[in-house]
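Reply to dn_fold:

You asked what the input looked like. This is it:
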Amino acid sequence: MYRRGESSPRLSNPRATGFENDFYTMIGPDGQRDTTMEELLAQRVDGPTSAIWHKLLDPSQQLTPDERAQVAIFIAFLFTRTSSLRRMLQDVFAELEEKTRILLDKRANDPTWRPVPLTPGVPAYPISSPEDLKLTQNDLVASVLSGVEEVAQIVSQMNWTFVHAPFDSHFITSDNPVARHNPFTKDLRLLADITKPGIEITVPISKNCCLVCSYHGPEGHIDVEAHGVDLINRRTLTWADSEVYSSTREEWLDREFFGDLPK
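and this is what came back:
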């Protein structure tokens, strides 16, 4: 495992990697831990998908429409089940909270001041305190569900190409495993991006196989040479948050994370 800020890679058990305690735990009205979301994901997303995962790796097997929809749901959740998305939401709302504090200070100092509605004819939202915009743990957990069904429907209708690596190469993955690339746009907004022609979504599913979803690729399984694996790995690295997972130590990853080490 490679982690930004560390001086060398380290061995890690896959079961202990990419794991965060209480990531999906909500807090009930009585202050008790509520694991409803965690149970929902285990029963409706992770469990059913793991039961058919082996079919993704086997060129002789085809997914049924229901199985394809299940995998699409799993991929859609990979868009939202990341620490980077949570930090982005926290940063956005922290900025809104600070702007609200400034506006409320203006109102306190000038009783005649009124906020300008964002939409003409629509009253401004009645916020009495910056605390109204503070994200709670429950808000962050609920954000996992944001847009999932729409993303899953889009992904399911794309072409699925299962790319297999040669014996001397392997795919890496990361703590933000769904990479998106479109040579025709720099628009990284989630839904706007994956609906545009040219988009490619890469999802490493094992060290030997990566799923590529696009509107132009072939359906089914293909073999690629090492440079094709390198291209996908570069995209995975670009979208990684802080950790990259590789089955072996790689010189190019050493250079990316630690620079040119003394020989």
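Residues 158-263 form one domain.
Hope that clears it up.
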